[in-house]
Design goal:
The chain has about 230 residues and is mostly helical. It has a single domain (about 5-200), classed as Orthogonal Bundle (Hypothetical protein af1432), CATH 1.10.3210. It contains twelve helices and no strands. It has helices at about 5-15, 20-30, 30-35, 35-40, 55-70, 75-85, 105-120, 120-140, 145-155, 165-175, 190-200, 210-230. The longest helix has 18 residues, at about 210-230.
């Protein structure tokens, strides 16, 4: 179906107040397996009751994309939320309801396959990859070390601009709210606080076009200063 799948999602699902109703309609009509077989594959995949009393991976994903629509998330975030747990479709059934490795490179490879097939635009594809890799870290912001958080900020290119970071945080909120029972422990404020501190620690560039060795020193200086003021362990 190639780009037709992308167009169908954008013109039908993402314009709906509750995109889940569109996807569930496709599921009932047998269309979902043609449009996005990987999302169809989420149906029936069990999750831990501790974190996902709403049911299988498909139900959680549907709840999360409805939150994305509710908060007015842009298209790239909606796609990232749709695919954030795609790695769980790769978990062997005998390991259910645990999905310990669903954020790894196998999941990224699957995202690359989907992105190429449906012709995801670059910014949507890029965000999907980072959200697949990092969405579990979103929920651990109060437990991670300053080094780990700084590494995430580098992956999200925070020193260049906040666009990728803001999209990551929005996707994290949707993931957290897309479950039952609804217990919201807002972590977005802490992420934004740390992001501002990290950027504030960026060294002033005194030379034009610094060499890689100088860039590496600057990165380490930023991390060390961030560790001092972040309040992280």
């Amino acid at each position: 179906m190639n780009s037709k799948a992308y167009d169908k999602i954008v013109t039908e699902a993402w314009v709906a107040d509750k995109p889940s109703e569109v996807f569930k309609s496709w599921l009932r009509k047998g269309i979902l397996s043609e449009v996005l077989p990987e999302i169809h594959g989420m149906v029936g995949i069990e999750q831990s009751d501790k974190h996902h009393q709403e049911g299988d991976v498909f139900n959680h994903t549907m709840m999360a994309i409805d939150v994305a629509a509710m908060v007015g998330a842009p298209l790239n975030v909606k796609f990232a939320v749709l695919f954030h747990d795609i790695g769980k479709t790769l978990t062997p059934k005998e390991e259910w309801p645990s999905h310990h490795n669903h954020c790894g490179e196998r999941a990224v490879k699957l995202i690359n396959t989907i992105g190429k097939r449906i012709r995801l635009p670059y910014h949507s594809h890029r965000l999907c990859i980072e959200v697949v890799r990092l969405h579990m870290h979103y929920h651990l912001v109060y437990k991670m070390s300053a080094n780990t958080i700084a590494k995430i900020f580098r992956m999200l290119e925070l020193n260049k601009c906040f666009d990728l970071f803001n999209a990551f945080v929005t996707a994290g909120i949707c993931d957290e709210l897309g479950r039952s029972p609804y217990i919201f422990n807002d972590k977005s404020g802490r992420w934004r606080e740390l992001a501002l501190k990290y950027v504030a620690c960026k060294p002033i560039i005194m030379v034009k076009n610094p060499c890689q060795a100088v860039k590496n020193i600057m990165v380490q200086q930023q991390i060390e200063k961030f560790k001092e003021i972040s309040g992280c362990k």
